[in-house]
Design a protein that fits this description.
Layout: E1 22-23, E2 31-32, H1 37-41, E3 61-64, E4 69-72, E5 75-76, H2 77-83, H3 86-95, H4 101-112, H5 121-126, H6 134-144, H7 158-184, H8 197-206, H9 217-229, H10 237-247, H11 252-263, H12 271-282, H13 288-296, H14 317-333, H15 338-352, H16 354-358, H17 365-376, H18 383-403
Antiparallel strand pairs: 1-2, 3-4, 4-5
Helix pairs in contact: 3-18, 6-7, 6-11, 7-8, 7-18, 8-9, 9-14, 9-17, 9-18, 10-11, 10-18, 11-18, 12-17, 14-17
The structure holds carboxymethyl coenzyme *A.
Length: 434
Amino acid sequence: MATAKKSTSKPKKKTLKLELDRYSGNVGPDVVDVQALYKNHGVFTYDPGFMSTASCQSAITYIDGDKGELMYRGYPIEQLAQQSSYLECCYLLLFGELPTTDQLIEFEDTIRNHTLVHEQLMTFYHGFRRDAHPMAILCGVVGALSSFYHDSLDVNDPEHRQLSGYRIIAKMPTLVAMAYKYSIGQAFVYPDNGLTYSGNFLKMMFAVPAEPYEVNPVVEKAMDRIFILHADHEQNASTSTVRLAGSSGANPFACIAAGVASLWGPAHGGANEAVLDMLAEIGSVENIPDYIEKVKDKLNPTRLMGFGHRVYKNFDPRATIMRETCHEVLSELGVNDPMLDIAMELERIALEDDYFVSRKLYPNVDFYSGIILRAIGIPTNMFTCIFALSRTVGWISHWIEMLGEEQQKIGRPRQLYTGAKHRDFVPLSERKKK
Ligand code: CMC
């Protein structure tokens, strides 16, 4: 079978000097307006990986990667993680302000009202193999929600957008827990609306119909914190995917399913699972030096999973909070995990080794969240689903923000074409193998 040839032609370099408008946001680097570049000068901008490109305006989340700062609607993540709850953060991300007591009670009630999923959706789960990756199941069932909630799919109606947002935030824990229960052959556990968002999730994950279940408050708090820390992260790959899918007018559940798919990759949300796989591969503290040498070898593609970040070139502020929570949970549960010893030694070496220091590769949020989730008893292949659950509010907030813009355009990037120039079709009988 022939495979498409990779273009080897190098683009020719020329210089173009231009005067462009420059805009300032409230904080952060200015942006240069290139919207009319093609119309006025016949050229596109070229920025693979969006290294310097702002794809939209947004008032939701701000990151200063050099300072290691993350804020939701202006509030520092450290304050939110210490003093707030996940649902309070959801309200903040969706509506822009912290709720009053009445507003929070009403919001929590609304979310509670939507925790159940349609009984027919359960049959979807039975169509999957028991050993299917739970992210594969999640991509499918989240997309399938669009076939159940026709009454909230008009993307041009702000009330429909809001109702879809409530529904998906409320149903995500139910869907994620169902994916887990299905994979281990246990009965689905219905939501318990007398519990908190995180407590209910833990119950749906770990209760069995034959036994009573009590939520451990330390674990509940840790779960809530994991949700808060992953709730939004401005224009990352999955959020940009949701925005791009949404820009065509696709329905919210289809857009969130696209976000789930994008999150799955090991360079993004899949990293927390990859961290645990890496720790298992290392096996013991004595094997760390050899592993580090492998990571530093330019000819070897192995990376230290849970280290480095596209935006944070200083400590990831979420990692600092996760590290503390990690120790709290392990001591509460009395877990003595050899994986944690490996993790701590890796962290120590990486923070001293010139390879990591010079490249500003610090532990990121996923480095610690994986260890906590393991201690709670959540299997590795569920980690990215939990990230997806937490990030759903961020995706929905960005989707709602984008659709609320006055002049909303379909996202359509340009390209630098390096393929064949015009050529004429050759009939099959005259073609020679190249
Ligand atoms: N281990 C070893 N070397 C690394 C790592 C790593 N984890 N990350 C980056 N590098 C090196 C890379 O080889 C390159 O070296 P050189 O300059 O000698 O070629 C340099 O650092 C810059 O790397 P890059 O690929 O240009 O950096 P990036 O900003 O494109 O990549 C990243 C960011 C997160 C994809 C990358 O650091 C990585 O693959 N990390 C491991 C996966 C991971 O933990 N991802 C979770 C991110 S946090 C959760 C989320 O927000 O989704």
